[in-house]
Amino acid sequence: MAMQLSKQQQQYVAAGAFMFAALGFVYVKFFWLPIAAAKAEATQKIEEIEAKIVKAKQQAARLERLQAEIASLNERAVEAEKRLPKTKSVPDILLAISALAQKNRVVIQSFTPGPTKNQQYFVELAYPLSIRGSYHNIGRFLAAVALEERIFNVTNVNYPSADALGDMTVTFTLISYQYKG
């Protein structure tokens, strides 16, 4: 059963096929491709924005960690400055040594600021001292000086013989340090 189409019917079928192809071309060219391109461009922009968001979140997490690290370093700097201050502060040294002397039942007979000695990162401040007390009290005093928060060093210790009461006058040089920075 073959169908026979007239010439006019064949022209209609050909015209319909041509119109279908033309409409298909117009649809693809003016609707499908521009929308697909816009969709691809929007997808690319979304991916770029998401990458920026991820990077910003990483930086925010890093910022919090860095802020915590800075706070920790600031605390350590304060502690370090207590041990190695930036100023000479003779009154603070005298107060600390006087408190230790009183606590350990030792009498400071003389405290004299002495010479300074420059080092690469710090300055050594020497203070010749003369203290009076019993052998054990002087030992406890010197141990307390060594355990003090600020860095002190004791040099040139001169232990004479004790008198009849068991007291002695000990002379030494107390070295304190000052940070140059």
Spell out the blueprint of helices and strands.
Blueprint: H1 7-83, H2 90-103, E1 107-111, E2 116-118, E3 122-134, H3 135-146, E4 152-158, E5 167-179
Antiparallel strand pairs: 1-3, 2-3, 3-5, 4-5
Structure description:
57% of the residues lie in helices and 23% in strands. The chain has 181 residues and is α+β, with helices and mostly antiparallel strands. It folds into two domains: 1-83; 90-179, 2-Layer Sandwich (Alpha-Beta Plaits). Strands 1, 2, 3, 4 and 5 form a five-stranded antiparallel β-sheet that branches. β2 and β3 (122-134) form a beta hairpin.
Observed structural traits:
181 residues, alpha+beta, Alpha-Beta Plaits, 5-stranded antiparallel beta sheet, 3 helices, rod-shaped
In short:
With 181 residues, the protein is of the alpha+beta class.
SS summary, helix count: 3
- Find the structural class using helix and strand composition: alpha+beta
How much of the sequence lies in strands comes to: 15-25%
pLDDT averaged residue by residue: 88
CATH architecture of the largest domain: 2-Layer Sandwich
Instruction: Give the topology string: H per helix, E per strand.
Output: HHEEEHEE
CATH fold name of the largest domain, please? Alpha-Beta Plaits
